[in-house]
Design brief:
The complex is a heterodimer. Chain A has 11 helices and 21 strands. Chain A is α/β, with parallel strands linked by helices. In chain A, a hairpin with a 7-residue loop joins strand 8 and strand 9. In chain B, a hairpin with a 3-residue loop joins strand 2 and strand 3. Chain B has 2 domains: about 70 residues, VC0802-like, CATH 3.30.2130; about 70 residues, 2-Layer Sandwich (VC0802-like). Chain B is globular and about 45 Å long. In chain B, helix 1 packs across helix 2. The chains are: A alpha/beta, B alpha+beta. The interface between A and B is medium-sized, with 19 and 23 residues.
Amino acid sequence: MIYNIEYETMPREALEAIQLRRLRATLERACAMVPFYRKRFDAAGIAPADIKCLADLARVPFTTKQDLRDNYPFGMFAVPMDNVVRIHASSGTTGQPTVVGYTARDVSTWAELMARSLTAGGAGRGDIIHNAYGYGLFTGGLGVHYGAERLGASVIPVSGGNTKRQVVIMRDFGPTIITATPSYTLKLAEVARDMGVDMGRLRLKFGIFGAEPWSEKMRGEIQRQLNIIAVDIYGLSEVMGPGVAVECHEAQNGLHVFEDHFIPEVIDPETGAALPPGASGELVFTSLTKEAFPVIRYRTRDITTLNPEPCRCGRTLTRMAKVSGRTDDMLIIRGVNVFPSQIESVLMEMEGVTPHYQLVVDRVDNMDILTVKVEVGDAVFSDQVRRLQELERALSHSIKEYLGVTARVRLVEPRGLARSEGKAVRVIDNRRIS
Amino acid sequence: MKVEQISVFLENEAGRLAEVTGCLAAAGVNIRALALADTTDFGVLRLIVNDRDLALGALRERGFVVRRTEVLAVEVPDRPGGLHQILRVLDAEGINVEYMYAFVRQSGDRAVMIFRFESVDRAMALLSENGVTVVAPEKIYGL
């Protein structure tokens, strides 16, 4: 199903005409209202009026996470505070949090895009949505919530945590849709099993998962354990929140970017040069309709590719591939680029290995040492130490073969890895060079 | 005649073994025999207990990875060469002992050892043919 037929299936020429009109208005307003953008444009010797076509966007300077931090908390807002009805913020685990604001119209636009996203993921009126994204400063919970209400579905605002209660609610309320981070979903299934509840036999039909990168193997695992169709949703608070792009359940092949509201680009993270469709690079977004917090060529640090081909679901929107890693998650181990998602793919190739892992990097005598901790599941546990050591060696060998990096694989007890109620902690880098 | 052993995966970390024994104590499970094999990273604890279902349930509840394994309890004459005699019989038929460990209590005047074989049925038949006593499970769980 498609929520907004007009915009989601619009011919490209018509869509691009709308994009150009909205882009120019956004640039004008950002430069008029936000000193940061005005200075940035002046420094680059460019004015909003110089942008005559969409290709001219490549001449506009980038905005980075650091720019947002430098303008903490409200320096990037493009409307007076009277018009801001909502504030969200990133967790700030890696530095100062970034703060974003929304006008009433922004909240409404977001609800529309989330209604489109939920529809693409298989939801409709009459569905019950178990929303296990966290509510609060994080955009996940409220983003899904408003979209679900716009769509006319019933939403259970269960938020994150209290996993046993969540299982009981899922068993008793019979939700047909689940929205959560993929890692928390697997934890839910694990806790359900311990409680004697088979998630595969509940009324669930579809799941819409995001907020962290996840692999196709992990999708397979979720689909099998929950007996549902799982789609990927993408978003980040700086750009809006969830609902910037979403997969359709019909094709499950790339995430449709809502291009009537955002222009996606893929650039070379080193040089900043725009890359052609199909080339892998850093994803960059420019917002087209946001009032309180417009972003211009915002560098997401997410690695993906773009595919402009129309999808068999009927949408004409450009699709971005599942995010394959982050420029800042990327570990450089003895000169080799390693993304956690690549390690995950290798682990999941091995029969019976759980998708719960953690990468630990240490520097010993000026050498980078990568340790991959993998949880032992019932399927691979053996009473023979030899077999477990063989498994460690086999995994280590596969990692070396596919990624070209030497890793020490260590089997750990399940639940031995820090697994927050939300996002999985995938990387611990102890190489802080003081 | 096969005895069921419980194996537990343990990280090499202070206090993990005590977690297992504490968990079994709280559940009222009696440990009959025990052996720990370890590497630098992890260990595998092997247990013979009086009530396997109770033990498995209690350990799983606490999040341990556990499995059941079939082993043989074999009577070993308590004199020089007693164990050697048994191993020779197995060796002659090319049956490999994966690991073994001893019971604390004896069966009459004989020692009892737990053997883990890859091919448990073949081993059991062979031992019986050669007059070696394989102890009945009920006796082992209560020994």
